[in-house]
Specification:
Layout: H1 60-65, H2 76-79, E1 84-89, H3 95-108, E2 116-120, H4 126-132, H5 136-145, E3 150-153, E4 163-169, H6 175-188, E5 189-197, H7 199-206
Parallel strand pairs: 1-5, 2-3, 2-4, 4-5
């Protein structure tokens, strides 16, 4: 279903997942970035304990016809982790700034720099443009080192490895660039996907969702 943005509330009260305690505070899990809540709302609780299902009584005929299923790992759908998705509304001109602010908050909350990948759909991030001026090999060597935030344009982001957090700045470019970057970012994000951009454009690209 389309992502429904909420008004961003980026301030110091919110913290991120797996964050180490900072200034005596314990960071909750799994919300690493202040601002809009996850697209999927939390499930309201129901009063009272859950009643266990009644035991199933089988007749001898039923018992005889039941065959054990094959042993092995659980289906992938049951074990695969789905990243949390957060949408930060921003114009194309402000998407990169919003992404930078999200990265700053992630790092302040205790995320390691090497946990974060930033993908841009329009103009490259200044860091990426600077590092690429030294050559493609040097640029990707820093990616492989995995010890700092890595910035990649949508055209080359497919070369980037998965990281716990992926931030997408929809800062211009064609719809095709966004259509390529968003599903790719979702596939690369281990725990959290943050998308900064125009909600209408993002939802039109994602359709029913990633």
């Amino acid at each position: 279903m389309p992502l429904i943005p909420e008004e961003p509330q980026i301030h110091e009260s919110a913290q991120g997942p797996r964050a180490t305690p900072a200034s005596g505070r314990t960071a909750p899990t799994p919300r690493p970035v202040p601002g809009p809540r996850p697209a999927a709302p939390s499930r309201p609780g129901r009063p009272g304990p859950l009643r266990p299902a009644p035991p199933v009584q089988r007749t001898p005929r039923d018992t005889a016809t039941v065959k054990p299923g094959p042993s092995g790992p659980a289906p992938a759908a049951a074990t695969a982790a789905t990243p949390q998705i957060q949408l930060i509304p921003a114009s194309a001109e402000g998407a990169l700034d919003a992404a930078e602010e999200a990265v700053d908050l992630l790092l302040e909350s205790g995320r390691a720099p090497g946990d974060v990948l930033v993908i841009t759909t329009g103009e490259p991030h200044p860091w990426a443009a600077h590092e690429l001026s030294f050559g493609d090999a040097s640029y990707w060597a820093q990616h492989d080192a995995g010890d700092d935030v890595f910035y990649a344009g949508a055209a080359v982001a497919s070369r980037a490895a998965s990281r716990p957090v992926v931030v997408v700045a929809v800062n211009g470019g064609s719809d095709a660039a966004a259509a390529t970057a968003l599903p790719l970012a979702h596939a690369r994000a281990g725990a959290l996907l943050i998308v900064c951009g125009d909600p209408q454009q993002i939802n039109s690209v994602l359709g029913a969702g990633v």
